[in-house]
Amino acid sequence: MSLSGLDDWQRISHAAITLVKDKIYLATHCASFQPKAIQIYTIDIKFPTVDKKGSIQRKLVASTCLDKDDFHVTQMVFKRRADNLQLYLGLGEETELGWNGLVQQWGLKQVEQSFTTDLGSVSRNRTTLHCQLKIQVDGKYITCLKCTKDGHLAMGLSDGSIHLELSKQGLLKNNETISYAPNFWCVVQPKDSDDVVDIIFSPNETHLLYIHASRKIGIARATHNIFTEEHAKILSIKIQQCLFNNMDASDLTSELVRLSKQPGFEDKPQEIIDKVLSTYESHYQDEEEWNVGQLQKAYGLALTVFTRLPGKQVQSTNLARGLQLPVILECFISSCSSNYKDVIRMFNKEDVHLEFEPNSLWSLVLLSTWIFDYVKWVLHEWNMLFHSKKSQLSESREYLIKILMLIQHFIRYTNEADYQLDHLSESQHILQQYANTLKTDPPIAIKEVINLLNDLNSIESNTKNGLFF
User: Fold this and answer.
1) From what superkingdom does this record's organism come (predicted)?
2) Which residues, including other chains, have CB under 8 Å from residue 94's CB and lie 6 or more apart?
């Protein structure tokens, strides 16, 4: 209460706070005051140090009285991202026929004030509040006011409807019919006089989450019904921003799914995701110790999109499994007790016999089983995977070839080498049986699968469906 200079028996009924140009502004209203007025203060916060105490100081910037004493303030919110400070007020007036609502937009203005005295005239500049916009809402009162990051106003009414300010840029709609003002459109239709209690925007403000007085919750989309190339470009930029700033992009994912269903834009989500992944990787490629783990956010986004896109189930499964291949390859290499140069020579198809750490052989059996299951799935989906455009980011085929080559040496070592398990030595015979099964169980020999994958590198792709294999 001390910030507004009120006594203990007085209470602030409405308040709003914002940060503009490194200054904290506080707007207050006290319903018990006569005449009814709005005050705007600046708040200066000084944090305590070792030798100084902290403090919070307020300074009155401007004050104004409402046009009518019959008006009641119902909502108050600052406009975001404004060049200068702007305040929205939701007012209500009770009449014999019910309530009438009014939305006012107030701004700060410098005026020159002159005084005439016996010694002459004295002038000074002072800051005042002046009304810039009025929106009349007859028959309803304002129950909720919220602003987007770009300063667009969302207005919830007592009849359950929600009206949003039109946008000239971005993804928000700008071509809908007017509602109570030429620059607004109705997002949510009336709900039998069920007041809108609160409105929350999705992380990228493409959707509205709202709740009524009856505790009913709803979600409404606030974007264009029909996409254009410009909207697709904006969508791509927003997804990149979410990725680099570690923000939630789930609402943009739903827009990508909707984009894929529009005629002429079926392949656009794939292009957007490929571009986003390429941009993200190129941003980090010069960093030391670059690894696939740093791409987890980007590929997590791609997995989310492919999981929801119609007709992309194979891509989603392949990407989810393909992302694990580098980790599995690292497990095989780290379990190898031979010199790393020998491993490289083996990858170059030189005649080398590799040795493995005996205590890691059981874990390699499990990883080999997973790889064979993945190979079976790849062969089952060969028509989709092998006749598709290879993404520039695709390395899963190369990883799979290297893993299969290591599995060959792992099986040979397990069955032919002279070693002894330090733990559970009695299970060594079972381990060798498992390894022998890995060699004989696959319907296609490991060597033939490796040859097939190598031959695919020389085949030109003949479709436009970008995949990650």
Assistant:
1) Eukaryota
2) 70, 72
> Which whole-number Å values give the CA distances from 287 to 15, 281, 290, 291, 344, in the listed order?
47, 10, 6, 10, 24
Q: Is the pLDDT of residue 467 over 70?
A: no
Residue 211 pLDDT: 94
Considering only CA atoms, which of 92, 37, 87, 26 is closest in space to residue 60? 26
The number of angstroms, rounded, from the C-alpha of 302 to the middle of its chain's C-alpha atoms is: 13
CA distance 385 to 240: 27
3-class SS at 208?
Answer: strand
Q: Where are the domains of the chain?
A: 14-113+125-221, 228-311, 312-468
With DSSP H G I counted as helix, E B as strand and the rest as coil, what are the percentages for the chain, rounded to 5?
35, 30, 35
How many helices (H) and strands (E) in the chain?
A: 12, 17
Give bridge partners of residue 211 from the DSSP assignment: 198, 217
- Gap between the Cα atoms of 347 and 334, Å rounded: 15
Per-residue pLDDT, averaged over 169-173, amounts to: 72
Helix (H), strand (E) at residue 342:
helix 340-347
- Cβ proximity of 371 and 410 under 8 Å: no
Parallel, antiparallel, or unpaired for β 466-467 and 389-390? parallel
Amino acid in position 310: P
Q: Name, in order, each residue with C-beta under 8 angstroms of 56's C-beta and a sequence gap of 6 or more.
A: 3, 43, 44, 45, 46
Report how far residue 154's alpha carbon sits from residue 185's, in angstroms, rounded to the nearest whole number.
10
Indicate the average pLDDT of the chain. 81
pLDDT digits (tens, 9 = 90+) for 50-63: 888 888 888 898 88
User: What whole-number distance in Å separates Cα of residue 258 and Cα of residue 239?
Assistant: 15
Span 18-67, pLDDT tens digits: 888 778 889 988 877 778 888 889 898 888 888 888 888 888 988 888 87
Say what the pTM is: 0.72
Residue type, 421: L
